[in-house]
Amino acid sequence: MSSNIVFFGHGEFSGTEVPMKTVVPEACKLFLFARHREMIAPARMWDIITALIHHKGNQEGFTKDVKEDTYSLRRIKFPGEDVHNYRLYPVDDRLYDIGAKTNKPESTSWFTIVTTEKKEGETLQSLMQHHKGKGVNFYWLPCRSIPDKSKCYVDLFGKPTEQTAEGAQIILSRPSNYFKAHPKH
């Protein structure tokens, strides 16, 4: 099993999950690429996949690069930290990548792409439990939106602006404090 698991598809937090929050498993990390209530442009998801391929397992180099504006790592959650129990939904044509001519990336020797075919989706908790292991890094590329899109953000920074979402606030620039470092204990 790969020690790098990339969740790919559509994502949302309904607020009705039981439990509403889950915990990052022991000896694992969770990388999040959007704010809570934020939708990601598919082009950004593909940029992150490209960065993963480029770094070929160099975790330090990848993390350094994705903290920059192009990829915009939002935060890293560490073992025992809680996180909203997001739901991963199936890949569809809205995630199509023109360059790769596909809507689903391929796994490589150092990371595994995880999607779902379940129409009702799968919770982050169940996905992490299924793929956990010592030293596993989870990458949540999907949106972290909520059902009421008028209370969401759409991150289009550096991407074409024709994508909109039912009244969501469009983000065309990123605040300097976008990456939230690990809280001090």
Residue runs with pLDDT of under 50 for 5 or more positions: none
* % residues in beta strands: 15-25%
Bin the helical content.
Answer: 10-25%
Order of helices and strands: EEEEEHHEEEEEHEEE
What is the approximate shape? globular
Number of helices: 3
- Mean pLDDT across residues: 82
Distance between the termini: 32 Å
Backbone structural class: alpha/beta
**What is the gyration radius calculated from CA atoms?**
15 Å
Largest sheet: 5 strands, mixed
Q: What is the domain total for the residues?
A: 1
Secondary structure: number of strands: 13
Strand order within the widest beta sheet:
6-4-11-1-9
Produce a short descriptive summary.
The chain is of the alpha/beta class and about 180 residues long. The protein is about 15% helix and about 20% strand.
Keywords:
3 helices, 5-stranded mixed sheet, about 180 residues, alpha/beta, single chain, 13 strands, globular, about 20% strand, 3-stranded antiparallel sheet
Describe the structure.
With 185 residues, this protein is an alpha/beta fold. 16% of the residues lie in helices and 22% in strands. It contains 3 helices and 13 strands; from the N terminus they run βββββααβββββαβββ. It has helices spanning 42-55, 59-66, 124-131, and strands at 4-7, 10-12, 21-23, 29-32, 38-40, 75-77, 82-84, 87-89, 112-114, 122-123, 137-140, 153-155, 169-171. The chain has a 5-stranded mixed beta sheet, with no helix packed on it. The protein has a 3-stranded antiparallel beta sheet with strand order 2-8-10. Helix 1 runs antiparallel to helix 2 (59-66).
